[in-house]
Amino acid sequence: xxxxxxxxxxxxNLLKExxxxxxxxxxxxxxxxxxxxxxxxxxxxxVHLSEVKKLTSAVSNVFIGAQNCSTEASGAYxxxxxxxxxxxxxxxxxxxxxxxxxxxxKESNEELAKKTDIVLENGLLPIFCCGExxxxxxxGKQEEVVGSQLKESLFHLDAEAFSKVVIAYEPVWAxxxxxxxxxxxxxxxxxxxxxxxxxxxxxxxxxxxSILYGGSCKPGNAPELFACKDVDGGLIGGASLKSRDxxxxxxxx
Length: 253
Hints:
By secondary structure, the protein is of the alpha/beta class. It has a domain at 67-210 and 226-238: TIM Barrel (Alpha-Beta Barrel). It has helices at 16-33, 49-55, 83-88, 99-104, 109-121, 134-138, 142-154, 159-162, 183-201, 203-208, 222-226, 243-250; strands at 4-9, 38-43, 62-66, 93-96, 125-130, 166-169, 211-213, 233-236. α1 (16-33) runs parallel beside α12 (243-250), α5 packs across α7 and α7 (142-154) runs parallel beside α9.
């Protein structure tokens, strides 16, 4: 089983003061209540990264992640943020390939392979998202889709590099809809992903990879989801904007 991880994707939410308040609440509650064997990650918008990072220094198992990065190290790319910039602020993780990035910004598997490489080259850790949309699920193509996303973006890595990646499975049809994959559906896909990794890299590497569930995970359903054999934690959206809910999810192991 991989490391227990609960990551919060704030998406494009919260103004400066609200972001500072949320981060402070999460850190203060985590200090008192969160087990040291659970890794907690907050992923705010770029403009909040520096301030939120400062607030986490007192807690050893709370980390900061960015929601995206550029494929390029530097240059004339107006509006982009390089991994080197993130590294200079002490950022630990980078979310790559979230379904919203794939849909709205047309990120391809090839582009995500480049982002994965540059994140790893800079010593940061990718949280790589994969998952199918409703039509693909209804057509029984979920394994084909997820398999292609993983193979085309990650399977060029050697075993040492791959072992640093965190996988987040997102049933896209369950994001922001209030619909959650059943525990059976979640376990089935997580087991498929781990099996695919085992075929490529061996069982030891597959067992060490953290595979997170990312689809409308809440305090009410987190214990059941996290009890699944191959679910190592969650990539949390809306519930990560409420400190109490976020910590309660992280306490669901």
